[in-house]
Amino acid sequence: MQSLKFEFSIPRYIFGKTIGRMFPSLLWNSGFSCLRFRETADPDLPNDRWVKIRVTYGGICGSDINLINLHDSPSTSPFASFPFTIGHEAVGTISEAGAAVTGFQIGDRVAVDPILSCMARGFSDPCDACRRGDYSICSQMTDGDIAPGLLIGACRDTGGSWSAYLVAHHSQVIKLPDEITDANGVMIEPFSCALHSVMRNRPGDDDTVLVVGAGTIGICVVAAIRALDIASKIVVVCKYDYQSKLALRYGADEVIRLGGKDYKSIYETAEALGARVLKPVIGPPVIQGGADIVFECVGKSNSVNDALRFARSGGKVVLLGLAGLLDRIDWTTVWLNELDVKGSFAYGMEEFNGKRMRTMEVAIELMRSGKMDLSPLVTHRFPLEKYKDALATVVNKGKEACMKAVFEP
Length: 409
Description:
Blueprint: E1 2-6, H1 10-22, H2 26-29, E2 35-39, E3 50-59, H3 62-68, E4 84-85, E5 90-97, E6 109-112, H4 128-132, E7 165-169, E8 173-175, H5 182-200, E9 208-212, H6 216-227, E10 233-238, H7 241-249, E11 254-257, H8 264-273, E12 276-278, E13 286-288, E14 291-296, H9 301-309, E15 311-319, H10 332-336, E16 340-343, E17 349-352, E18 355-358, H11 359-368, E19 378-382, H12 387-395, H13 397-400, E20 404-407
Parallel strand pairs: 9-10, 9-14, 10-11, 14-15, 15-16, 19-20
Antiparallel strand pairs: 1-2, 1-4, 3-5, 3-7, 3-20, 5-6, 6-8, 12-13, 17-18
């Protein structure tokens, strides 16, 4: 089968970090990059509790672009095993099942929870995080039956969705009801990231929420708030016109377009939040007042700075964007305004309608019941061999009006 692999080596890494700065497209266009298009064997079932899945759609996530562009912090490298097939967003059908797998049949259409926590790794005595249902912060992601890896798509033993097949532990697989299309199915994973952040940091009906960034995760935060019937005022800061339209479609009350290097958008955002703009001796404007909760969905220095300064005194900032090694973050407002800064990664178990459910199960129920339809977010589809076109489209998303691109392996 064809697959897109990340093959780390020191020479390739050095090439990417130097030449890639001047010519970013070489990070996926060059034979010297870490991204390799390969003909490989299908992944084997690690044991009889795993299934093999034929991928229908494999999503392209912002984290995948960070990986290819070598923007990830080296601190994440112990939680991967090279070479690995990229891709953790997946919808597909079961093509093979181990002898100990029950409740699934060949041909079942499924979504995949890619987190490789204690159960997938074969531990009968789970860690404290997994006992709580916080699978994304499992403490045993480098041990067990399979190679190290936070998730499918970063582990050499599982494959990934940027190929025709991947393997998953039976506990990671969730059947899809007929009401959910494959386009919605591939959105379950990114939507669950947003849903988890909202359910663990639930705004009140009278709160004002600021969403910084209107890519896939930012739009999904808006959709999650509205699907949970939360009546908060939602203000979204976005970069492109198509993002603005989608933010309003999914329930934003106001949208602020970024205004380049001038401060117009700062004043517009402050006005939407009922905040005051103060002028310091030097430097950018200072904000007094702001949002009760800010969801930061970009992970860049400017967006993190905006998230911190637009939170009211005593407010909360939730970091969903993949912030790594960022320069020039002004942390003054964190202590001056006694902000609560909270990270959010992936998904786990949630309280929903009086029951404990996996985040992805909540997402499926919200889709099944008609609370939302995320299929319009899948704007571009590519065969795997057109990966250079796909990655160029995602990187130039403003020009291409690309929200979510997927591979059809």
